[in-house]
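Worked problem 6 (solution included).
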Amino acid sequence: MSEREPSHDDAVWQDLVARLESAEAAPDPQDKDTPGQDDPRPADAGNPPSRGPSAVNFPRESPPEDALPVAGPRDYYPAEPEDDEFVPPEPAPLGTGEPLLVLAWCGAVGGPIALLLMAMFWRSAPFAAVVGLIVMIIAAGAYLVSRLPGERDSGDDGAQV
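Solution. The predicted structure is:
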């Protein structure tokens, strides 16, 4: 296999670049100025002969000055967002909960944790403190269960967004 001559490769490359640049500036094939099938002039009139067997002759005419730029497949601009999008309501501040409900949750969660810590670190805790924590856990759980809704709406699976 023989090596190519660098000067020949450069000449071929320059010819290819020149033809592609002229192809970008070529007018629309539907224009009357370009030779068509009904035109007796040859398609490569005015063009120098091309090099290579697969070379294509592009017209060497400049485009009209008022021609629109060609849009490519990546020239996509997304549509402007609509103004009537859903805006969720402002959530209530964190400190506005019902005090009795917050106290019940503290008793239901904090009671078992306090019993566990007393069993691990304070073995000699008074019996009244242990019984008081157990009563607090039961009372808090009963209050939380009593606040649950009585029955579901028909057709409601309970899921809320």
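Discussion: Helices lie at 6-24, 99-121, 127-146.
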